[in-house]
């Protein structure tokens, strides 16, 4: 086992009616004036938002609300939230939703705590987060794992740039997780969640730093649980067992546990971010659209790693390491297709793109030559272009 530092301070309350602990937990973590951040009308129509605000009212906790968060959360709305939160003198942010809502809440928390710094400077690495407001979460979508992670992603809608930020200040204080709150999700959102959860684990699993047996076993078992329960959830979104397993997998996939002792790759995430920024496609769908192209392009770096993935995750035992590894890529691609996830540009809904667009995607992904991506195989501009070109079908 390699050396590592593990820090995962989020208090998790998991199970039926977990959302009813919101006011109590806000007070326990020092909140006295709250901004409730949410997305579209689903939390309103379901009555969840009213449940939360009634708790605040019953506990004499003043609050303001900010709705309208969309997938691929926008910097402009986060800035508006900061303005509103400062005006209301907020000292706690409560996210009621999925990853986009949670990431918006994190951005607002950073902005309120640092009113003299434009928050995009944190995501563009021009400034470092050194303080933030506490954030709590009522989770309604199993996907991003943002409820326990140190990361947050924001899209700058002025320059069409989507970037992630990792900092311990992104860790929520608590996450209230009731699988029943995910029962009304559309099939497409469930599918995107399945992909995102698996990819958060696979991005850590395909690491250049090996020899972490227990970490590998945790990652492999999580993937097997997702492969088993994902199709059940799609068939019956009110299956409590399947939805509860997926919800907990989502949190563990992105709190750092599945990559301890290794170095994450996350090239597929970077490839997907550019697709989301340019075409406003769903995050999970952008990942499955490029993963098999990334895997085939990087396969020769370590065929045995793909073979272990094939043996432990997919149960493939016949053949050489190379044959098992390649079969594992095919099985993964087929699984994504079976749950309705795209595996190329045309299935993503953006069509086959002209070469100049593919080259622009590659340029943007490497910040026009200012960075490389990935660690399993370090990828420069030409590598990124080749992967996009393979997915452009």
From TrEMBL:
Gene Ontology terms: cellular component: cytosol
UniProt KW Chloroplast keyword: no
Source superkingdom: Bacteria
Domain Fe-containing alcohol dehydrogenase-like C-terminal: 193-390
GO molecular function annotations of the record: alcohol dehydrogenase (NADP+) activity; butanol dehydrogenase (NAD+) activity; metal ion binding; methylglyoxal reductase (NADPH) (acetol producing) activity
Pfam families registered for this protein in UniProt: ADH_Fe_C, Fe-ADH
Xref: SUPFAM superfamilies: Dehydroquinate synthase-like (SSF56796)
This protein's UniProt keywords: Oxidoreductase
Domain Alcohol dehydrogenase iron-type/glycerol dehydrogenase GldA: 9-179
InterPro entries cross-referenced by the UniProt entry: ADH_Fe/GldA, ADH_Fe_C, BDH-like
Protein name per its UniProtKB record: Uncharacterized protein
Organism the protein comes from: Thermoclostridium caenicola
